[in-house]
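Reading a protein record of the kind used here takes only a little practice. Each token is a code from a learned vocabulary of local backbone shapes. With that in mind, consider the following protein and its fold in token form:
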Amino acid sequence: MTYEPVIGLEVHAQLATTTKIFCGCNAEFGGDPNTHVCPVCLGLPGALPVLNQNVIDLAMRIALAAGCTIQPRSRFLRKNYFYPDLPKGYQISQFQSHEEMPLATGGGIDISTDDSGTKTIPLTRIHMEEDAGKSIHALGESLVDVNRCGVPLIEIVSEPEIATPEEAFHYLTSLHQLLVYTGVSEGDMEKGHMRIDANVSIRPVGETELGTKVEIKNVNSFRNCQRAIASEIQRQIDLRETGGEIEQTTMLYDPDRNVLRAMRTKEESDDYRYFPDPDLVPVVVDRAWVERVQSQIPELPDAKRTRFAKFYGLSADQIEVLTADRDIADYFEATVAAGVQIRQATNWIQGDIMRALNDRKIAIGDLRVSPQHLAELIALIDKGDISTNIARTVFDDMVETGDSPSSIVEQKGLVQISDTGELDGVLDQIIADNPAEVARFKDGDKRLMGFFMGQLMKATRGQANPQKASQLLMKKLGS
């Protein structure tokens, strides 16, 4: 029998706020264990939560960017369960039901498919909630760090309309880009800014009824999610083919061994005993609030790609590199605005700029080379003041110091030698020192041109104008 998978994803994204969702504690990643806490985080008696408005603004921003409908009225509920890193014994969250609506419903995420097409994965909802703490199990002990308790999250829930593990990967990539582009989340997977739960079932091809769902919990990378889903699909097919029964279970994925193991029997929503949080008033959103948040949404990735193709005439591969990150796209446009040709800006950013970022593992916002300084460097090449090779040496100094290219060229005496008289003397000496090579060149071994140019660059510390030097050399060698 042939089966088809049915996949839905629940993505928890940490919002880019300074403080937590219901108190003024620091929401920043890290810090000594149990230092970013207060009575509200710890759920101490008498401590009352106060909702951070920036959380609503950011949640609304991504919802509007994804085409969701903002509900005019939503509220927070208590989701009750016991775990050591949840001091209150409940999590403040939202839920979708006829009576209790989340902040946003509907919408969708556009993805690229493997056959070079596009597909929209519809969303069920986007809702707000607080994070729990962290349990650390090591050396036979279990330790608890509650710094993350109360860190603001949104949960983005897709409809079960993802058809393959590859589509799941593309969905996560597109969603991550949208979250970072809009400034809603930093999206740093290493800091836990995005965590993924995947719901996977299979059914015979042609059937419409959903199969038994298995949840894969807390996957920490897009590739690992793709691999985990593929493994779970195969596990379920093997069970069906051998007469086994698929149970509704929560699984954990071990990426090092590429294996899944059961964590617990999956709870239903009733097991959490949801009820409205009596300490928080409903969230009421009016039209003016929605319009204000809508005005804060920047140009989105798809619109930027379309504009880059039309306005700059770039290829699909170039656009993919330049628009993958909003800050890189802004850097490119600022460089062009400073007077650099589109082709030159593209080549330098795709080449030396990306190399510098990758080597230092930094974002372009941390690069010490401004678009204006990059434009100045390219102008020095165009004017013939420095060669392209010297420019790359100057660029490396710019990355380290943040100094302007002109000041580096002046300090290190790197101005290109274009004076014919000065080059004449150096070339005459090279020709006199290498009579055998001169004879072979005149006999037709034109490959020796590279040898002579190499000797010239060595003698001038790479400062000879290669175009003028090449013309002068050819003339002296009688070619």
Observations:
- The radius of gyration is 30 Å.
